[in-house]
Structures are given as C-alpha cells and as structure tokens.
Amino acid sequence: VSPQRNGPLMGIVQDSLCGIYKICRRDVFLTREQVMNIMMWVPDWDGTMPPPAIMKPRPRWTGKQIISMVLPPGLNLLRVEKDGAPLSEKFSPLNDNGLLIHGGQLMYGMFSKKTVGSSGGGVVHIIYNEFGPDQAIKFFNGTQRVVNYWLLHNGFSIGIGDTIPDAETVRKIEAAVRARKEEVDSIVASATANTLEPLPGMNIRETFESKVARALNNARDEAGSATEQGLKDLNNAVQMARSGSKGTTINISQI
Fold first, then answer.
1. Where is each RNA polymerase Rpb1 domain found (predicted)?
2. Which of 14, 18, 227, 237 places its Cα 20 to 30 Å from the Cα of 155?
3. Between 86 and 104, whose confidence is greater?
C-alpha cells in the first residue's frame, strides 16, 4: 500500500480481471465435479465444500460462491450505486449493480477494476489493512489460480460478431454523428461569414479549432454511449470494457 496515494500498488489485471468479472455473473453455475477440481486451487482449503445454491434437479454452485472461497472470512464491504434508484432496491439490485460482501461471502455485485484493481478503498486495500499483508498475498494467489483455472475451462475469445451492432444502435450512432456534423457546418459558416465571437484568451482561429474539436469529441462520446447501451453484457468486447481489463466504450464505438 502506497502512503503517497493511500491505495494499493498492486491489483488484479488483464486475464484474471476479465475472468473474475465473468465468474461473478448470475448465470454462472458449476457442477460438483467442476467445484471439486477448483477447490484444489483454493489456498488453505479446509476440505469442506459450501452447500450448493441450487439443490434440485441437480446440485449447482454459483460463481459467486466459488470466488467467496478465496475471500478471508470476516471481510465486509458495501458499495452502493449512485443511480437514483430507491433505497429498497439498492440491496436487491435487478442488474447486479453495486457490491455487498458480508462475512467473507459475495452476496451481490460483480468484481471489476474499481473493486479488485489497485484503487483505494477496494477489496485489496481492505484485506491489507484489516487482515495484514500475508492475507492479501493469499487473496492474490488464490484469486488468480481459481479464476484462471475456471477461465481455462469456460473459455473466452472475441470475434468479429462482437463488433456488429443491431440496426437501432446504428441509427442512434448515425443520428449523433449527423447532429454534430451540422453543428460543425454552422461553426464553419459563422467563421466564413466573419461572425464567430472569439472565446476569452483566444483569437478567431483558436476559437474555431476549439469549437470544432469539442463538437467532434461530443460526437464520439455520444456514439460510444449509444453503442454501450445497444450491446448486451454477453458481448465479449463489452465484458472486457466493463471489467476494466482492456479497452473502453470509446474503443468499442470506434470499432
């Protein structure tokens, strides 16, 4: 932990980060055989398996249960999403927003760069402060072994199919770009007609360049947000961007 920025210098990155995001999804279920294989990678495993989340028709364990095996017992962390939803919905979020770890068990939410990366107030920081450096090392080792073993069998690849949006998303992107092009045209027209007002501390040429750059940047950002809303969370490129392992929504919109 760095005293300079009050946060850890190390965090989960790249493959492990994408894997830990995917294993926390609500639709990840593991069979008894898979769980017993993964338990071999849990540090200081006591030999007991957690009870399955689903009993009938066949026992199934969730990915959240598996990743909770690596967390130290007694770890508590609450992250509430600032999305304007009523307080009653914060603790049973429909989209698995926010994060709640209670007694070392991940109750809801998905691990991402914000929570298991090298950011202050995250899981790594709290484990180091409350349980000591040895427990933080066990968390790093256990997490990466468990997640990478699961990801090896689950698989993850990105293809051209992840970069093709639906027709509605294409329309939204085109509308955003068209609106900003019209804005640039009006700026060019006012500059040509010599009616462009210079901004404070700039001459006419600098003002023109600044306004055009801002309009084009807005077009890129709007296209990026439209793309992110249009693509489902099953999309591999979106999963990489949301987990924080590689890329951003802007990169996805550029593709």
1. 1-163, 193-255
2. 227
3. 104
